[in-house]
Design brief:
- There is one protein chain.
- By secondary structure, the protein is mainly alpha-helical.
- It has one domain.
- The chain contains 3 helices and 2 strands; from the N terminus they run H-H-H-E-E.
- The protein has a two-stranded antiparallel sheet.
- The longest helix has 25 residues.
- The two termini are 31 Å apart.
Length: 85
């Protein structure tokens, strides 16, 4: 789930607009609404999907940075695969 989809989910659940919106809520109210949502529905499938996406992106970033620190470059093969050399 993308960040935009998750923000729309939280807007619909909480009834608040995101803080970056022109008429949006204050960031403290937004965080409080998210905390209440987490407490009321700890197994929310949309929020779990966002956590999975965030975790996977962080892991991919760490792996790419590790290879870059070792002096390897990420390249695409002729058949579309990704490898490091």
């Amino acid at each position: 789930m993308t960040k935009e989809q998750w923000i729309r989910h939280l807007e619909s659940v909480s009834g608040l607009l995101r803080p970056s919106d022109e008429n949006g809520a204050m960031s403290d109210d937004w965080k409080r609404a998210y905390a209440i949502h987490k407490a009321n529905d700890p197994k929310c499938t949309e929020c779990a999907a966002r956590r999975r996406t965030k975790r996977a992106a962080a892991n991919a970033k760490a792996i790419r940075q590790t290879y870059a620190d070792c002096g390897m470059r990420r390249v695409r093969g002729a058949l579309g695969g990704v490898y490091y050399e």
